[in-house]
Write a structure and sequence with these properties.
Blueprint (H helix, E strand, L loop, with lengths): L6 H9 L4 E5 L3 H14 L3 E6 H7 L4 H8 L7 E8 L2 H10 L3 E4 L6 H17 L3 E6 L16 H11 L3 E4 L20 H10 L5 E3 L7 H9 L12 H8 L3 E6 L1 H17 L6 H22 L13
Parallel strand pairs: 1-2, 1-8, 2-3, 3-4, 4-5, 5-6, 6-7, 7-8
Helix pairs in contact: 2-12, 5-6, 6-7, 7-8, 9-11, 11-12
This protein binds glyceraldehyde-3-phosphate and zinc ion (ZN).
Amino acid sequence: MPLVNLNELYLDAYKNKYAIGAYNVDTLHMCRAILEVCEKNRSPVILMFSEGSREFMHPCNIKELILNISKDITIPFAIHLDHGRSIESCKSCIDEGFTSVMIDASKYSFEENVRITKEVVEYAHKHNVTVEAEVGCVEASLKGEDDFYTDPDLAVKFIKETNCDSLAVSIGTGHGLMKFKNDETPSLRFDILEKINEKLPNFPLVLHGSSSISPQLLNDFNKYGGTIKEAKGIDEALLTKAASINVCKINIGTDFRMSYITGLREALALNSNKFTPRTFLQPALDRIKQCVDYKQKHIFMSANRIKEEYK
Ligand code: G3H
Ligand code: ZN
């Protein structure tokens, strides 16, 4: 059964110094495309639904649908709720069969974050579901607020008090297109990762906001009608370095979504006399497959990691 709780995968990722890619999906075809690449690459993967994308799939049972399209898949993967904003939202995903949830109470006080996370962890662990939480605030990092980095001592205290399974940390990544100001040199706070690692070896950390938005991707996106003028993402080498320490899950939304829309735009522009949907959707899926393939092989180093027992 390849649909798994993440703890075992995190342990292997930590030990062997790689990260598992987590992609923001909106449709079942996207899920299938990702699973096909991962099957070929023998890489574990995380299919990540936001509350919005889950609503978009409504009223389907996502787990049942994914089990149906993954009967021939032998690599382990997880179905994960991204940025769960409430205890109810997390519980409802757990009840539906998600194998992992993120409770994001990072905008609240430390004590409130602990209280909310603890309640989700207690419920999740009864159902063999893993919980990711956040200390520091990745979302605040782009608003120019001072206090957004994760405090390593608070992170350690939080992990001990909540018993969460992984922790999203704020070390300089950010959501969306502009992760750094134009005149800023992109860098990440590796001292924070190292400090948590010293105090809590084997504990898996998560990086949000980790798209790289290469000039090539931006160029391809704009070639057939896109109008995104600027973007500044995370250097690939920084992500590989983070994966070699204690970052075991790396979230990719922007690169993945832009790849899909690039394929779609190109197909629409080149086939203006056609109207069969798959003529347009297949190139979009091919683009996301390339995106996932490249990251697994060259950035996250997660290709060829699956042990025999999953076959
Ligand atoms: O939770 C989702 C991710 O953090 C996506 O971030 O769009 O910057 O890749 P990104
Ligand atoms: Zn995020």
